[in-house]
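Q: What structure does this chain adopt?
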Amino acid sequence: MKDLSTKYLGLDLKNPVLAGSCGLTGSVDKVKELAEAGAGGVVLKSLFEEQIEAELAANLGDYHTDYPDAFEYIREYTRAGSVDEYLALVADAKEAVDIPVIASINCVSDSEWTDFAKRVEKAGADGLELNIAQLPSDPKKSGEQNEKLYFSILKKVSETVDIPIALKMSNYSAGLANLVSRLAWSTENRVAGFVLFNRYYRPDIDIQSLKVSKADVFSTPADICESLRWIGLLSANIEKDFAASTGVHDAEGVIKQLLAGAAAVQVVSTLYKNGTGQIGEILSGLEQWMEEKNFNSIAEFRGRLSYGKAENPAPFERVQFMKQFGGVV
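A:
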């Protein structure tokens, strides 16, 4: 039996496979099912800042926001999940399973909602993942203005809770490595780790109906490349935990991310496509690979191919296709 245990955000995990935040982590029964399937931990379905703000306003008649479509969204969404129900989910899930339970809040500002983080901690959450949903689409806002949001949210939440905080990042940054580095070493926040990356709603266009539609919400194994690049680049230089998100569908994907330096991986799409039993398949494949390579623990190979440790780390930084298509050897 191989030792699959690891640490993420200072939490002890029996293995590095986390069920990421999604509908499958939105009920106690499903959380129990995921734990029984072998998940090393779960990130609960996100509570949205707009839900918290709406509850703070006491009723939707007093609720105001500049966030596009928030009012209609909240009016519908809060029928299915209120703030109190989320706190109950945290408490009941924590009681039902013996693996770390990480709460998740999807946020777009540093407003009054941040005080709610303390209630999540009191409910028993082992950690808190802040999913900061930021698309830098406003041409009037500079990159520096957009980046300030990360710092202001983290500062306020850090002043409120003692549990470890993970920041789920957007890859939309002109200076991503510099931004993550500054967030990691800021004395005003207590970020323990980063999740790379946030998977946003993606638009598509229906050329028959001539309407904007939504693209497939599920990832594919090919989507692993972006987070693999950045975890490989950042994990060797920044002493915080990194979790990989998007594109991890099987044992091969998990192994790649661990070799790049990830402390944990989050799986979602593959659970929808293959069922919760896919976790067992992933863990079995991971153990089999470790047996073949004579590794007895995750620690023996984690980060072995990260930037600075790999024999040839240059592909992490290569952005042009000269070698592939230009005949360069």
